[in-house]
Request: fold
Amino acid sequence: MKRRQIKFVIGSLVIVVSLAFLAFTGFQDNKAYYQNVSELYATKDKAFGRNLRVEGDVVAGSIQRAAKQTKFVISHTDAKTNETHTLPVTYVGSDPLPDTFRDYAQAVVEGSYHQDGVFVAKSMTAKCASKYEKEKAAGITLPPVTEN
Amino acid sequence: MVQVGQFALALAFVVTAYSIAASLVGIRLKNDKLIASGKHAAVATFVCVSLAIASLGYLFVSSDFSVAYVAGHSNRDLPVYFKIASIWGGQEGSLLFWGWLLTLYSALVVAQNWRKHTSMMPYVTAVLMGTSLFFTAMHLFVANPFHLSGVALADGSQNLFTPRDGTGLNPLLQDWLMVIHPPMLYLGFVGFVVPFAFAMAALLTRQLGDTWIRITRRWTMIAWFFLGTGVMLGGNWAYHELGWGGFWAWDPVENASLMPWLIGTAFLHSVMVQEKKGMLKVWNIVLVTLAYTMSLVGTWLTRSGIVNSVHAFAASPIGGYFLAFILVGLASALYLLYDRLPYLKSENEMESVVSRESSFLFNNLILLASCFAVFWGTMFPVISESMPTWMGGGERVTVNAPYFNKVNVPIAIFLMFLTGVGPLLAWRKASTNSLKRNFLIPSLVGAGVGVVLLFWPGIRPWPLGSGEFYAWVAIMMSTFVAGTIFREFYKGARARAYGTGENFVAAVVNLTLRNTRRYGGYIIHFGFVLLFVGWSGQAFKVDMAGIEAGIGDTFALRQYVFRVDDLTVADTPNYTAERASVSVFENGKKVAIMHPEHRNYKASQQPTTEVSLRSTAKEDLYLVFQGPTPDGSKAILQLYLNPLVAWVWIGGVVLGLGTLIAMLPNKQGVPEKRRRAVKSDEVKEVEAVS
Reply:
């Protein structure tokens, strides 16, 4: 290899290694386990102290809004066992709650799970379940067929 | 209309397949009639898919809720322009829109280039139509927008019914930006198919001279322009619609649009090294292939629900098909490239680390690193879950915005440095003297601004690696780059004014028009400088949450005092709204009245907030009406003070204008030379064929 090519290799290596270092440390500091409510309970004691993102449906009527913190419950029904698990959540984040956050919405809360069984969320996102899925979830029967 | 749409889709599928077959068989049999027939079929595909999308549009405008997609994304009282925009408001329709744009591009490419590049075009047609075939198959069999409304019964049959009204378009999408943001973004995504088609055609025909690189560069500029515009509009939409006070959150969908853009940016730079020095030939084909792959990956990410995102649609069966198509495309392209390596020998080699080509090399390296870091972070939930347990896998692990920032902020600053330095370095090797001449003054100005910022407005750039630190460095770097750009314009215009006797302003304009690529490029770089300054302001953002205020109450932030004058309720056919009227006083003087809203959409029964913004060059006031307090007497408000945000949007506009200028043909002189280049390439084509 010629001398000037060595310079390029060294230059590139310095850049790649320092970026990889940043990526690695950034990754370790900011990773979060992504689970649904059932999976969270399945990990048992490992759940405490982990940075978590937990997904579940907002239980209808559980939302208690206040200016500083909002409390609600999310649930997940395991498709195989048909068991439903619920998780009480206290939202303490500084960002406003998303507009899509409401009864039946699919919420993802991020924060930590505490020994008292409450999940303290620092941030959250919510996806609106479509109206039809929502009715299905609530057990509403089909609307009547219209004449056209 | 449903039948018309269905029929048009079926016809499109058949015609697309025919176009591929006719082109390929035509090449093999050297049958010009068959090849021409393949070309006409490519144009016919455009007509068919246009008919399909027009039918869907008609169904939306006439509120025909017997079609499931219309019922799910529209309602009777939706304004008509949103009804039309609803075409791309959901999964099936947005895929159809993607496919339609692809056939539009294909028809344009075929019509524009047929006479010029006779031997290459049948292959281009085949590659374009190959991608189109995949999409028409998806429209027809997997994500059909013309399915009828109904409910699947337990025995698998369908109980059809027509709802009285649709469930409405997602209120967050009921915004004028949502009418134009997706088309821009998609024009960008789809645009990268064209360079890929030419790259593959060049490999297949072994015509790896200047022709393909010239056409590809132009089409990449077009795709890059639309994609960049789409990303900027998306950021602007997020900023004024979502109400969290920012414009970029590293959401998978945002990342999906950024990745092909980063690759496209890398290609637009490295292509110059090939044009000038005949180097990086293999690399450029890899970049074009990656840009194509990434734009498909982007579509796949956003449409399959494989990663969790605020934008993504529900999990759907299209994921597997997309992945298979992407992998097959990538593998075939790389195999073809490997097979043609002997035709892609480099004509020169790198001589000095301090040279133009070297700066492009480093630019490419870190743009790719950035893309890789974004890809890794976006896809990690999928990767970690599919890894075996003994490797620590099996659990879905996600990363948040701080990870992306930690990697990409230093990359962006280094890129800014190269933006200032690269264009002024000489090819081959830059002399120490030229370095001093070009960079001494801009460096001093940059450093000077850095020092001034410490005293006014009193930035505290520590600890190292904090947001404040990076913002401080970014502003210094931006000043340095702006300095180099202004110096270039000044130098060029002064010389021109001296030679021609024009006044200085005319000299700047003519200088730019006579060398659009170079000076358009500088304008693009200057757009980035402004964008960078705006982005730096984010480090000094102030957030005041959970303000409870009734009529007559006041609250204060820095030099501003806010007074709630009125809380009212409004009713429109589409939504009801609670409105606050808030007077803003700056240093005791009334400067604005803000009207944040909290809306409740009737059809979807979904609440949204309408942010009220007061934007100045210095800072934005961003007021959100989160909703009334439980007893209804007061409003819960959130206030952000966002320094310098306006410069992000101004930078975006400059960026777009610069790109348009860079795409203009040069005024006088140069076309003659270009024409000769084309001719010599055609001679090569003829030689290669015979």
In short: The radius of gyration of chain A is 22 Å. Confidence is low (pLDDT under 50) at residues 130-148 of chain A. The first strand of chain A starts at residue 31 and ends at 36. Strands of chain A lie at 31-36, 52-58, 70-77, 84-91, 106-113, 119-127.
